[in-house]
Amino acid sequence: MSSRTAPVYGLILAGGASSRMRRDKAVLIYQGRNQLDRAFELVKRHVADVFVSVRGGQMTEPTRAQKPLIVDSVEGGGPIVGIRSALAAYPDVAWLVVACDLPFLSDTALEQLLGERDPRALATAYTSAHDGLPEPLCAIWEPAAAAALAAYQSNGGQCPRKFLSAHSVLLLEPRDRHALDNVNTPEEYQQAMDALDSSAPANSMQLTIQYFALMREQAGRSEETLETSAATPAELFSELNARYGFTLPREQLKVAVNSEFADWSRRLSAGDAVVFIPPVAGG
Amino acid sequence: MRFRFTDAAIDTETARRELLDRGAGGYVSFEGWVRDHNEGQEVTRLEYEAFQSLALKEGDRILAEALQRFPIKHALCIHRVGSLDLTDMAVWVGVSAAHRGEAFDACRFIIDEVKHRVPIWKKEHYRSGDSGWVNCEHCAAAPRHAHGHDHAHEPLEHSVLPE
Fold this sequence. Notes:
The structure holds two protein chains of two kinds. By secondary structure, chain A is an alpha/beta fold. Chain A has nine helices and 14 strands. Chain A has two domains: 8-199, Alpha-Beta Complex (Spore Coat Polysaccharide Biosynthesis Protein SpsA, Chain A), CATH 3.90.550.10; 204-277, Roll (Ubiquitin-like (UB roll)), CATH 3.10.20.30. Chain A has a seven-stranded mixed beta sheet with strand order 5-4-1-6-8-7-9, sandwiched between helices. A five-stranded mixed beta sheet of chain A has the order 11-10-14-12-13. In chain A, strands 2-3 form a two-stranded antiparallel ribbon. The chains are: A alpha/beta, B alpha+beta.
């Protein structure tokens, strides 16, 4: 990228009316945390500065009030106003804009956007996995979009999707196809909570692995604590085998979970202690 | 009576006394020793290592099975861990029973099961300077013989395959 490429800040859009949900989407709870905090922390892992976009009347709402805010500076409402307000507040900055109703948004999705960004386009965005149209609310908006958005709104335009469709933007196929599944209704909220709860242990959990004998020598350690998405001992072994290159194939090993022999296909839980047992030789 | 580990020499006199019983007409023990050769290699010393939290449970299960399968009075097994020299005792099994037949059978059963089920490993150090984990180094190359060849360090030879 050229030296003139604008730095990227994060913008969480939390000014929506949530009319179909009939509740404020920013404070919906998933896996014990409200969605505004989840989105904020996710984006914060990828860019240094993150702001929350709000309407004038939302500044004192407690969940939002703790965050750095960008308050709508132009009239009209809607996501375009939120994006324009951020571009106006920091004219030399590009914005990684993320809506507050994307509970499945992932590191993979943000990495791809940032990694494949084209700073010469007005925006870098995904095409929807559902209808192939641009997704404006998980996208990078470049400084040059400010003038084009102002012109679009002054002609009566309000829809950021239509804006992207009509302008020079880079569109990407999302590698994480579910990252942009959004939640608009109470039914969708329930489904999203269920999906996140059932996948949470598999997504990532902390395990302790102890190594003995040949396995200890080949891993170069007696014990480690690992953050892993492996759901079973078999998957965990594949992951660790890729790292350490154990000479014994899995068929030669047994496995113990929490100091008891276990099946390779057993579901692992956070905090489990796992031991791969090479052929024994007591006596 | 529980399966146990020690990192010092096994005190067989004390262990034997735990098996005394007025109804016992005999006592059989087995000692596994460190010998100077294995599979054509000259062995100079051994290192034993155990996954103790599971090994203690599995060892206890084996003793309980022996008491269930054979009409014996008491059974005990002690395994040593750490670095052992030639002629050192690595494992001791003791069984007391009313009659000698059951005591022999139960003692044989216990040592066979311990060798195949309890997570204990031994590393052989050779005269050549090489070393290797028994049952682990060859089976990677010849997986079908993983448990088939038994590197016994005691006179009893057997070919029991693990379940």
